[in-house]
Amino acid sequence: MDRSATLRRSVRLFRAFLREQSDPDLFYGVLAEDSVRQLARHADLAGATVLDVGGGPGYFSQAFRAAGARYVGLEPDAGEMAARGEPEPGTLRGSGEALPVRTGAVDVCYSSNVLEHVRRPWLMADEMVRVTRPGGTVYLSYTPWLSPWGGHETAPWHYLGGAYARRRHRRRTGSEPKNRFGESLFAVSVGATLGWARRCQDAEVVSVHPRYHPWWAAWVVRVPGLREVVSWNLVVVLRKHGDAAGAPGSGHVLQATGDGKSSSPRR
């Protein structure tokens, strides 16, 4: 149990979260530093190849590189890649449901706040396990649907249904929400995530905890029903089965095609 996850840390993260829309650089900078610190408990990041699935414009790149990792971002949306100007160097464009990455190519496969935006979340989760080397670490974090922020900018009206919340936003603002229920936002539950993790034959669960809570509140994920509402953001950490000595040494991550050439990233 990580006792560095204090109440003071939780307050700091929540205050930064309140400025996500107005100052995303601040929020994601604070979140990146915290994420790297938490992830370092489960994986040696010095010299590790880290794949950030759904990394957007690379908010987490600086924090991972400061920890000594080789950062590789992956993002399906060209607009998101360039949200801060020029895309992060080396970023791949591809879908989380079909990662254009070699099997067992990365030491750490990381994803923050992406799973609820994927139509087939368990396919993405399986893909993250696939591309991780034996002995490597998978870190998967997302916002459960029934949490207070489950509807994102349409919250709390998502409690009356995602379609209703989307219509209400459109009626009030005259435009679609950025996160459109049924298209780019989906209902993913804590229970379903734990079920996937238990069924995963290629990796073992190392930790399951609410991302923003202090360490003494981690017990909420063990209570069905309650965990769906109060977790806010769920983290699942897995370690892939196999000998850690199989770590890749070249750092090449692109998926090879049948003719031996690297394929272009797929959407």
Q: For the terminal residues, how far apart are their CA atoms?
A: 38 Å
How do the helices and strands follow one another from N- to C-terminus? HHEHEHEHEHHEHE
Largest sheet entry = 6 strands, mixed
Please state roughly what percent of the residues sit in beta strands, choosing from under 5%, 5-15%, 15-25%, 25-35%, 35-45% or over 45%: 15-25%
Helix content: 25-40%
What gyration radius follows from the Cα positions, in whole Å? Answer: 18 Å
- The secondary-structure class comes to alpha/beta
* Number of helices, counting only DSSP H or I runs of 4 residues or more: 8
Query: For the residues shown, what is the average pLDDT?
Result: 88
Given the C-alpha coordinates, what overall shape results?
globular
Low-confidence blocks of residues: 256-267
* Secondary structure: number of strands: 6
The spatial strand order of the largest sheet comes to 2-1-3-4-6-5
Can you lay out the helices and strands and say which pair or pack?
Elements: H1 7-17, H2 24-39, E1 49-53, H3 61-66, E2 70-74, H4 78-81, E3 106-112, H5 121-131, E4 132-142, H6 162-173, H7 190-199, E5 203-210, H8 226-230, E6 234-240
